[in-house]
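Hi,

I'm pasting everything inline rather than attaching a file, because the server keeps stripping attachments. The sequence lines come first, and each chain or strand is labelled.
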Amino acid sequence: MADAGVMRPMPHTARGAGVYNQKLGMWVFLGSEIMFFTALIGSYVILRVGNPGAWPEHGPREVLAIPITAANTFLLICSSVSMVKAFAAASVGDQKGLRLWLIATVLMGAAFVSVQAVEYTELVHKGFVPSAGLFGSTFYTMTGFHGFHVSVGVICMIYVTIRAFRGKYSAADHRGIEVIGLYWHFVDLVWIILFTIVYLI
Amino acid sequence: MASIAAPVEHDVGHSHELSFVRKYIFSTDHKIIGIQFLLMSLLFLLIGGILAMLIRWQQGFPGQVLPGGGVFPETMVSDGIILPEFYNSLVTMHGTFMVFFAIMPLLVGVFGNYLIPLKIGAPDMAFPRLNMASFWLAVPAGFLMIAGFFVIGGSAAAGWTSYPPLAETSEYSGVYLGQQLWCVSLIVLGLSSILGATNYITTVINMRAEGMTWFRLPLSIWALFITSILVLLAIPILSGAVIMLLFDQTIGTHFFKSATGLPILWQHLFWFFGHPEVYILILPAMGVVSDIIANGSRKPIFGYHSMVYAIIGIAFLGWVVWGHHMFQSGMNPTLGMSFMISTMVIAVPSAIKTFNWLGTLWRGNIRFHVPMMHACAFVSMFVIGGLSGVYMASTPVDIYIHDTYFIVAHIHYVLFGGSLFAIFGAITFWYPKMFGRMMNPFWGKIHFWLTFIAYNATFFPMHQLGLEGHMRRIYDASRYDFLSGTHGLNVFISISAFVLFASQLIFVLNFILSWFRGAKAGANPWEDTGLEWTTPSPPPHGNWPATPTVYTPPYEFSVPGMAQDYLPQDQSKDMVTAGQPAKGG
Amino acid sequence: MEDTIERHHPNYILVWGILAVLTAVEVGVAFLPWAKMTIILLLVGLAVWKALLVALYFMHLRYERRPLRILALAPLPLAVILIVAVITEFRW
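And the predicted assembly:
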């Protein structure tokens, strides 16, 4: 049936949510992602409340590098801005702006993951590994799965960028931009929560 | 939504001829995918049944040589005797296969896929390729699960509920890779389910045909829609928990470790998923039963609106009862009390549904066809299962009967007496639409009665066993003096179970033979009102030349002033009585 | 019908600026010598504020119809239920 790749005007939605299928589908899928991170973050809260002794006395900052990760957080927020600017460009048919903002998003997203990878390497060298008690277990699981989601997002973003360079998005139909944007903002949103809970508290 | 679009035109049976592989193996057609799920799930139902037979052999005839036991390796069956370690594996994998690979895909994967687009008047799902991905993720998940039997240490053996520390400590369980494969399999299956739920929810919200308002949806679709929301929100919790368990097993994390972690966290996470899961296993069954009972009674469903609200109520309340699986865990007693109350309350919407089914039957023009028999069995057996649930809801009672055969009786009354009878009825009911042929009604009735009698003989005595203190998952009751009186019942149950299993051969033969030799079916052999019956059996790709327009509520049977006793949803009374012939039949 | 016609584009740079400031404030608050519970409440509040900004403006929930907003927020009560219920195992 409908091939999302073909450029055509935004479809009318006769009844239902008032949004086209792909956008509704992405929001629905994000509902499941909220629950997935709830399992991880909820477990973290429960484990920390129940076993405070498993964490350093003055908190995660004794082990984790706050300044670099704060900067990384800011970087991810910037990538969210570039994403939404890409969407704004697409919505007025600004092909050049769309491509530039998409490339910026890809680069910043990739940079975020790279910084995290470097962070992991340094932590492991210091002896802080997943098997290092509940602190290590929760830290690596939560940030790892978040990083996995960012990585998947970067790959999808590259695909979208290639399509943008091929002129597949127009002011009349830029559904793909909006949909990947929703995913990307969600990943940023989760990190906002994670950074606070895992690093700062 | 103000504007109503004209019915969407699209070409049916388009000329791009697909290869056999693209048409039947890697198909994006919801009907083919539904049938793929059907064949896969029936296979796993058979596997789960075979495991049950082994369980019942051990329970009924412990210490006696298993007939045919030579096919098993020495690590499982030694000198013809099922080993205790293998027995743990049997009970674990029976539950796992039945819950995750049989009942859930049968209800959600098969009927969700097959019925949703057809009954809402859509040409296919919102995301046909994602749909294909859903199925082809479930298949490797199944392989991974089966693979557990073929690795050193055998398959997972910590119960289908997989509690740590046992589930993550090989020194206790004797299982290594098998337990990890269990986790990985469920992660893959979870992704399949989540993608499927995304598809179903989007489709039901956005792709209903013109005139198909929310309160004209058949209850099967309401149930599948609400169930999909439960799948969407509950499965990720299981995914998270299983990932944590897998990490404990493989990379040394401490989530559920005894001294350094929190084993009870697993129970909370698992049952926070697990309780919505059991409603996932029953709600679609209730939905199809409603459709079938209305059809068999030739009456509208009694209290359609309250049925919808009851489904929603069950789904809502299902989120706050999970602790009733944990009354014996040592949890906070006040928290336990809140779970007791919420669990008792959830009986109310289920009771509303039961009374509404009875109200539908009351003074109906009953057609006791095979699906109707199964649907009526559902209602009565589900009542028994539900009533035993009320006993278990009471914490002081549950402390006595928890982890006994009373629980096993309850599980099987709701899942077999409930879900599986509904599945048998639904398969028989929609078989003509899927395959263009009727299943043989004579053998359908024989299968029904044999199953119904043998099933009750198998599972009803388990209530008694449980009250006598017979624990579940134990290898050999004769090793406990206080259970010495249970042997006779165990033998009776086992023999009944063998009869039950053998009776399913009739269904299997009926299913297979009818595919080739069954009576050809027209578009609407059951004289039903649903939209799926307005298109040929089986429907072409795209389902209709143009999507239908809906004029009537879902169960307009025996409408006064009409000659025929059903009014299809794509017709209004005026259209029919004005002399236009009714379609279908 | 909804998207191309009534597309709202708020001032994304302004939102970005607020997010930057809030991030800096968060890091600052984390190192203040105040009572633990105060800091936790402040940090959680700031995080929620930032998350809302992203959801409302970048994900455009501010401009979507009510059904979609309800859909987006629906899972949150479940998260609260799970965490609160299980925490009673330790804090009562």
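Chain B touches chain C through 14 residues (CB under 8 Å).

If the labels don't parse on your end, tell me and I'll reformat.
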